[in-house]
């Protein structure tokens, strides 16, 4: 699976309240509505700027805080193609895979906002076209690769009726 | 080779001889969702072609995050939860019952050695009862509702040994804010935290919940403690279920062991907008506050309300401060009425709201205005957490919150003790 888009850079410890605030997420199951407010407290213009397939790029501990699955779903519905970070908080990481949002652990220090990136999840390679650099990515654990390749945990359960890992 | 508490519980529940970094599929003893996460779990349950909830008597929905409903949209989601739990014979704790993390222990659903998942990140609270309890998302909850199972990567364990005796006016909240400031917000990511040492053993079970509750704020999957006599007594008073305590082996392997002497610890305050931004109260004393919040799954128990009431007895809160109190559950509410604690708080000027999460998570019941400072007993102070990204949240113990409410500025509670 090859993903291509522009980078939108954020810092360390981007928590799930920043991804989608509690003041919105409790009101609705309409993820398109939530997507209008994604990352709002860090960058009020993000939802308008992001193009389909673009990447959210961050430092350490992306997705820390609450267990809200609205966080990966709001990113997905805003058109985000993948999240690239130096590390992820564990609940967000699970939720992203379960809902089909690719999450990539790599050295993000060589990426700036606006850089054109290509990510190949199978080959484990990230190319920064703007900077002319190749960046290795950490492969997903086999269990998570299995869930992601089944199309998320819901599709996995539709297929097997239970955990088949 | 010896095992940690986490390795033992996941071995017991999976039937595998599991060690850190192994992947297991384990039987879950109790499953929980709240009103911010359950509606999505119901959608995921449907997407999985789920037909019925496996053992519905060990699964609960709790309506606590927006309780009672402040909006039409929320009401529809609550109705969805009520309908689903009724159709599936699940337990439903509706508005006014309390915060999920108070209810699961209080109603006897969790205890030593049990494996619990909750679609709420502070599910780690029950680690204080020696339960492997961890937060998950809605899709994981749906999978567990259907199958009764969950996959886990067995975590490595980081052990915190707290020596000494906490000084007067310094509480378990101060201790956990201090520990988080030491290891930072991702210091225990993917790991189990074990909290031990004589300073932990000296704490009441209620005070211990505060520490395990905030394990997630250092990134931990669970915040485990041993089941000593105090825990067994507490659990017997709340549950008819049989629980088997699980202790770590002397030769268990730890990713790290951190030792602290807490005898000189000051009251701690986490400054905006990070939970690991903790400092001794002296560094922020004098900061004016406009709102004080006492409650939440971190510090809304009877002991917490009682500590605050001791400071507020015969005093009035500062005229420039709104003081919001949310008892953690109906039972806490009733006991606080019986003991006179609630009367003291109300006489001092408290606005008491329905047991629930509201003010902490920004759904309703006390949204601050632009530029205001809030001091709260909650567990998160992220920008916008209380629904206004131009407000500033300081986290502290019930004593520090009460003292600050009286003076209208952040105050060392030892001035009142």
- Uncertain segments of chain A are none
The helix content of chain B, as a percent range, equals: 25-40%
Structural class of chain B: alpha/beta
Beta strands of chain B, count: 18
Query: Which structural class should the secondary elements of chain A be placed in?
Result: alpha/beta
CATH architecture of chain A: Alpha-Beta Barrel
Give the C-alpha Rg of chain A: 15 Å
Beta strand count of chain A? 7
CATH class of the largest domain in chain B: Alpha Beta
| CATH H-level superfamily of the largest domain in chain B | Aconitase, domain 3
- Residues in β-strands, percent of chain B: 15-25%
Q: Strands across the major sheet of chain B, in which order?
A: 4-3-2-5-6
Query: How much of the polypeptide of chain A forms β-strand, as a percent range?
Result: 15-25%
- Arithmetic mean pLDDT of chain B: 97
Helices and strands in order:
The complex is a heterodimer of chains A (165) and B (417).
Chain A: E1 2-9, H1 16-19, H2 22-25, H3 31-35, H4 46-49, E2 55-58, H5 70-77, E3 82-85, H6 90-99, E4 103-106, E5 116-120, E6 125-128, E7 133-138, H7 142-149, H8 153-160
Parallel strand pairs in A: 1-2, 2-3, 3-4
Antiparallel strand pairs in A: 1-5, 4-7, 5-6, 6-7
Chain B: H1 5-14, E1 23-27, E2 30-34, H2 38-47, E3 59-62, H3 72-87, E4 91-93, H4 100-106, E5 115-119, E6 132-135, H5 138-147, E7 149-153, E8 157-163, H6 172-183, E9 192-196, H7 198-201, H8 205-213, E10 222-224, H9 229-238, E11 256-261, E12 268-270, E13 278-280, E14 291-295, H10 296-299, H11 302-312, E15 322-326, H12 330-338, H13 341-348, E16 350-352, H14 358-361, E17 373-376, E18 392-395, H15 398-407
Parallel strand pairs in B: 2-3, 2-5, 3-4, 5-6, 8-9, 8-11, 9-10, 14-15, 14-17, 15-16, 17-18
Antiparallel strand pairs in B: 1-7, 12-13
